[in-house]
Amino acid sequence: MPTPTNQPTVGGRKIKLVLGLFALTAVAGFLFLRSAPAELHEVATGDVQAEVMGTGTLEARLSATISPRITGRMASVNVDQGDRVEPGQVLATLDDAEARQQLAVAEASLGVAVATVARVRTDQGRAQAVLNQARVEHARAVALAENRTMAESDRDKAVEKLRVAEAEAARAAAASAEAEAQHAAAVSHVALQQELLAHTRLLAPFAGLIVRRDRDPGDIVTPGGAVLQLVAPTEIWVSAWVDETASAGLAPDQPARVLFRSEPDVSYPGRVARLGRETDRETREFLVDVGVERLPANWTLGQRAEVFIATGRRTGVLTLPTRFLFPRDGRAGVLVLRAGRARWAPVEIGLRGSASVEITRGLQAGDRVAAPLKPGLSLEGRRITRP
Q1: What is the DSSP string of 105-159?
Q2: Are residues 207 and 237 in the same domain?
C-alpha cells in the first residue's frame, strides 16, 4: 500500500531534528561569541565598616503631660506648640475664684479658732487659780479640824469646794485641748485651701519644649486630662527595632548614623544610648535607643527613621561592592574576568558592610569583576565589554 502523503517519513523527522539541533548550537555559539556589556569593577584595598540596621521612631527620653490635679475651667493657656519654657514657669491657669473664696473662709475659721484658744486658756488659768486656792483652804480646814478648832461642817465645806474646783479645772483643761485641736484643724484646712489654690496654676516641671497643646481657655478640665505635652529637647533619641541576631555585636556608646524618611539623603550622627533587655516574641526584635547628636531643622516626635550602628571597621583590606557578589550552592562568588571573559570564582568574605565587604581569599588587587547591567542576565563565559 502506498504511504499517505500527509504522514512524515522517518527520514524527514531525522532531518528536522538535525536542523533543530544545528540551529540551537548556532544560537548558543552566537550568544557565547557575542560580547556582553556589563558593569566592571577593579578590586582594590580600602575600608569596610560593618553596620547593623534598625527601624524605629523619634522619641523623647524625658517628657511630661501637663494636666491639672483638680477639676476646673481653663482661664488661660500661656504657651503654644514650639515654645521653650523654664522650670517653674506658669504654663496655664484655672479659674481660681472659688478656690480663693474657700481660702478666705478657711482663714476666717482659723481666726475664730485662734480666739477660742485664747479664751479657753484664760478660763483654764482662772480655774487653776481657783483650784489652787481651794487646795490651800482645804489643807487649813483639815489641820484645824484635827486640832478641834473648826467644826466638822466647815471642814466638809472645804472638801466640797476643793472637789468643785478640781472639776472646773478638769473641764477647763478639756476645753483647752478641744480648742487646740480645732485650731490645728483650722491650720490644716487653710494649708489645704492654699494647696488647692496653687493647683490652679500649672507649672513647668523642667526646662523643655512644648510639642503639643490640647486645651484652650474656657475648656473644662479634669485631673489627668492633658493640657500640654512637654519634652526635654536635649534628650531626643530614635527607639529602633533591631533583629535579635545582631545583639552580640552591639554595645552602648557605639557610633551610629540616622536617616530620617523626611531627608533620606542626609545622615545625622548619633550614638547608642542603651540596649533593650526584652525581645519581642513575635518579631524576634529588641529595642535599641540611639541618641541623635544633631536633629533636623523640622523634626517631630514619632517620625520614622532608620539607624545604622557601626559594629566594626577594617582599613587597608581588599574590598568589593556587595552588588558584585553572586553566590552559588551556598558559597560566595564573583564573576572575575579571565582572558576577557567572565568566569565564576569562589571567594571568602570577612567583615560585611552595608555597601561593601572584605575579601579575604579568592581575589587580588587589580582583578576585575563584572556584574550584569540587567538583573537576571547571564554573563558567565561571555566576552565582557564596557557599555
Answers
A1: HHHHHHHHHHHHHHHHHHHHHHHHHHHHHHHHHHHHHHHHHHTT-S-HHHHHHHH
A2: no
